[in-house]
Design goal:
With 229 residues, this protein is α+β, with helices and mostly antiparallel strands. It folds into two domains: 90 residues; 92 residues, Immunoglobulin-like (Sandwich), CATH 2.60.40. Helices cover 33% and strands 31% of the residues. The strands form two sheets. Strands 1, 3, 6, 9, 10, 11 and 12 form a seven-stranded antiparallel beta sheet that branches. Strands 2, 4, 5, 7 and 8 form a five-stranded antiparallel beta sheet that branches. A hairpin with a 5-residue loop joins β4 and β5. α1 runs antiparallel to α2 and α2 runs antiparallel to α3. It is elongated. The termini are far apart.
């Protein structure tokens, strides 16, 4: 004769252990969740078949445990779906970003490359300015030219170009320079973010989004591209 099981304590304890293992990490597989649910149903069936008719199981407890198991399984499946969707969006972003290859862009930086009598840079303003200036220095740190970009009526990116002429009217040699910015508004001065110019030569997909390689400036997140020229 089969020995009756007096209560559902053992069944509930086993289910709690299954729920705990399901919730430990987001890497729990779908197969693992289904196996736990099957084990629970097997134990529930055995419990029902062998329960003491005089002291039956507590239906409320069993129903509650089944609801918990169903919720954990559903959350795991939702996490898997969201992960797949995120990966798909990241891949789509990378594919879209390939159209930028070969294009000139502005990213945070203070380098300025003079080539063929032309250099391009930019300034990222957080507010309007009564006046905006760019001070260009050579590799020794000496000032070679100061560009006056005038008043700026709105915040945003302000591109500029330098024709290679120094403040004395001489032609500066091609090569690497740096620049610093200064803005004035109602008598108060500030230093807006300097933007360096470079050409996009590669797009690298990633789980958190595409990385854009901008010449010798290095790799940048797609969101770091301030302007495409």
């Amino acid at each position: 004769m089969t020995t009756p099981i007096q209560n559902s304590a053992s069944l509930i304890a086993a289910l709690n252990a299954a729920n705990s293992s399901l919730g430990k990490t987001s890497s729990t597989s779908t197969n693992g969740a289904i196996s736990s649910q099957s084990q629970f149903l097997t134990m529930l069936t055995a419990q029902l078949q062998n329960q003491d008719p005089i002291n039956p199981m507590d239906n409320a407890q069993i129903t509650s445990q089944m609801a918990q198991l169903s919720t954990v399984t559903g959350v795991n499946q939702l996490n898997s779906t969201l992960t797949a969707l995120s990966n798909s969006m990241a891949l789509g972003q990378s594919v879209s970003a390939t159209s930028m290859i070969g294009q000139g862009v502005l990213v945070a930086g203070s380098s300025l490359n003079l080539s063929g009598g032309q250099a391009i840079g930019g300034v990222d303003l957080t507010q309007p300015a009564d006046s905006l200036s760019v001070t260009i220095k050579n590799s020794s740190g000496a000032v070679v030219q100061t560009l006056q970009l005038g008043a700026q009526s709105a915040a945003g990116v302000v591109p500029f170009s330098w024709n290679g002429l120094t403040s004395t009217g001489a032609t500066a040699p091609d090569g690497a320079y740096t620049f610093a910015t200064q803005a004035t508004l109602s008598g108060a001065t500030s230093k807006p973010t300097s933007l360096a110019y470079g050409t996009v030569n590669a797009i690298t997909p990633g789980t958190t989004g595409a990385t854009v390689t901008v010449g010798t400036l290095g790799g940048f997140a797609l969101s770091a591209i301030k302007q495409v020229l």
